[in-house]
Write a structure and sequence with these properties.
The protein has helices at 16-30, 35-60, 74-85, 99-108, 121-131, 140-148, 158-161, 170-187, and strands at residues 64-67, 88-94, 114-117, 135-138, 153-155. The protein has 193 residues and is of the alpha/beta class. A five-stranded parallel beta sheet has the order 3-2-1-4-5, with helices on both faces. The longest helix has 26 residues, at 35-60.
Length: 193
């Protein structure tokens, strides 16, 4: 699209309160809308999103997460979960890493996680087994075998067809990651510790 004349507006994905705010400011700036006008328009929905996230993120805070490459949403999701929900990304795999498009996300991603590009499932399985994260985001084909090995999983496909963008969906997005952890805690009380 850029080759055909489209102008790229560099911004994080509108996941969570922070991502949505940064996205809206970037889009508004590209149209010459003053920052204070944007702030006035977004103050109430941002505050609601932050309150809702504070509740849901209690389940996620301090939990370690591993992303297998699947949807190309892994880097923005890892940024959101780390910065707004207190999760610790161990590995963030993505099928393809377009560094220019992902630059705003990479700048906000905390230091520490391994970034992997492409599919090398055997090596990724070795790394997830060694890391033993609290939650593993993967495709359906890996979820059941990993669950059988004692790893809690989140199906990556749900993130593609579930509404997860902007302030209104911030807590719902966090909830998608909290549910498998809550389920695991109910099934195995030692997982709740």
């Amino acid at each position: 699209m850029i080759k055909r004349g489209a102008r790229h507006v560099a911004a994080p994905f509108p996941f969570g309160a922070e991502g949505t705010t940064l996205w809206l400011h970037a889009v508004a700036a590209s149209f010459g809308i003053p920052r204070d006008r944007v702030e006035a328009a977004i103050a109430a929905p941002r505050a609601r999103a932050e309150r809702a996230l504070a509740t849901v993120s209690q389940t996620l805070r301090g939990k370690r997460i591993f992303f297998f490459p699947d949807s190309q949403l892994e880097i923005p999701l890892a940024r959101f979960l780390a910065r707004e929900c207190g999760m610790i990304p161990v590995e963030v795999g993505t099928p393809y890493l377009h560094r220019e498009l992902m630059a705003p996300e990479l700048a906000l991603l905390p230091e520490g996680p391994t970034l992997s590009e492409g599919q090398d499932v055997e090596r990724q399985l070795d790394r997830v087994r060694a890391a033993r994260p609290d939650l593993t985001v993967c495709g359906l084909g890996l979820a059941n075998p990993l669950e059988a090995e004692g790893l809690a999983t989140k199906w990556a496909i749900e993130l593609v067809f579930t509404p997860v963008h902007f302030y209104e969906q911030a807590a719902d997005l966090a909830g998608l990651f909290a549910r498998p952890l809550r389920r695991r805690a109910l099934l195995t009380p030692e997982a709740a510790e």
